[in-house]
Amino acid sequence: MKLIIAVIQPTKLEAAQQALAAIGVTRLTVADAMGFARQRGHAETYRGHEYETHLLRKVELQIAVNDDFVEPTIHCLEEHARTSKEGHIGDGKVLVLPLAEAYQISDGLTGPGAV
Questions:
Q1: pTM for the full model?
Q2: Mean pLDDT over all residues of the chain?
Q3: Sign of CA dihedral 59, 84, 26, 95
Q4: In this predicted model, what pLDDT tens digit does every residue of 39-65 receive, in sequence order?
Q5: Domain ranges of the chain
Q6: What gap in Å lies between CA 58 and CA 90, rounded to an integer?
Q7: DSSP character for 84?
C-alpha cells in the first residue's frame, strides 16, 4: 500500500478527480494548501494597495492506494494536473510514501481491503 500526496493547481482539481474516478480511484482527501517554490510568489492588490505574497494557493490530494494502483494513479495525475502539454513551473508535485497499515473505522477492516 502507498500514500500518494499530490499538490496541484486548484483549477485542475475537477479534471483530476474525474480522471481518477475513470481509472477506479474514488477515495481521496482534498485539502487547501499554500506554499512556494520556484514560482517565488506574486503581487496582489488589496483595497488599492499592492503587496507581494510568497505563498501561492494550491490543493493537496491524499490518496491511499494498493500497490497495483500506484503507477496508473501517478500517470493519471501527471496527465490531468498539467496546465499545458509541456507543463509549467507551479503545476505541482506528486509524492509517494509507504503506507504501513490502514484501518477502516466503520467495520474494523484492515490492510489492503481497507484502502
A1: 0.84
A2: 89
A3: negative
A4: 666 666 777 877 677 778 899 999 999
A5: 2-39+52-114
A6: 9
A7: S
Q: Which residues of 61-93 are buried (b: 16+ CB within 10 A; e: fewer)?
A: bebbbeeebeeebbebbeebbbeeeeeeeebbe
Are 15 and 76 in contact, with CB atoms under 8 Å apart? no
Mean pLDDT of 14-32: 95
Q: Which of 91, 89, 68 has the alpha carbon at shortest distance from 78?
A: 91
Separation CA 95–CA 62 (nearest Å): 10
Instruction: Please measure the distance between the N-terminal and C-terminal CA atoms of the chain and give it in whole angstroms.
Output: 8
Q: Rounded to 5 degrees, what are φ and ψ at 67?
A: -55, -35
DSSP 8-class letter at 43: E
Q: How many other C-beta atoms lie within 10 A of the C-beta of residue 31?
A: 11
Contact 107, 94 (CB under 8 A): no
The CATH fold of domain 2-39+52-114 = Alpha-Beta Plaits (3.30.70)
Hey, what's the cell of 59? Answer: 490543493
